Amino acid sequence: MYEMRLYILDIRKSYHEDEDGYAGAWFNCPVDFEEVREKIGVENEEQIEIADYEQPFVLNPDMPL
Questions:
Q1: Residue 7: φ, ψ to 5°
Q2: Burial of 2 from C-beta contacts in 10 A (0-12 / 13-18 / 19+)
Q3: DSSP class of 30
Q4: Does residue 21 sit in helix, strand or coil?
Q5: Is 24 within 8 Å of 42 (Cβ atoms)?
Q6: Using CA atoms, how far apart are residues 25 and 57, in angstroms rounded to an integer?
Q7: CB neighbours of 38 closer than 8 A, spacing ≥ 6?
Q8: Per-run averaged pLDDT (10 residues), the chain, 65 residues
Q9: Most buried among 20, 35, 43, 63, by the most CB within 10 A?
């Protein structure tokens, strides 16, 4: 079974080629903010951004909800 996953980025940190790249991590949905806080070290939701996602279905902008 496929799950929806989100790559959540800590927007306080910039990209570093010599390190691991972006300061973020993959999370399975539904995402618990306490897990995000623990894993990437942010304090509130204003410090994060969804940078990428994987899902087992296709979304198109003109699809009905």
A1: -95, 110
A2: exposed
A3: S
A4: strand
A5: no
A6: 21
A7: none
A8: 86 70 87 94 92 87 77
A9: 35
For the whole model, what pTM was predicted? 0.76
State whether the Cα torsion 6-52-47-21 is positive or negative.
positive
Q: Write the single-letter amino acid at 22.
A: Y
34 by DSSP, 3-state: which? helix
Q: Hey, what are 45's tokens?
A: 């939701």
Reading the block at residue 33, the tokens are 């903010």
Report residue 4 as tokens.
């929806």
What are the tokens at 3?
A: 């799950």
Q: Around 45, how many Cα atoms within 13 Å sit in the side-chain half-sphere?
A: 3
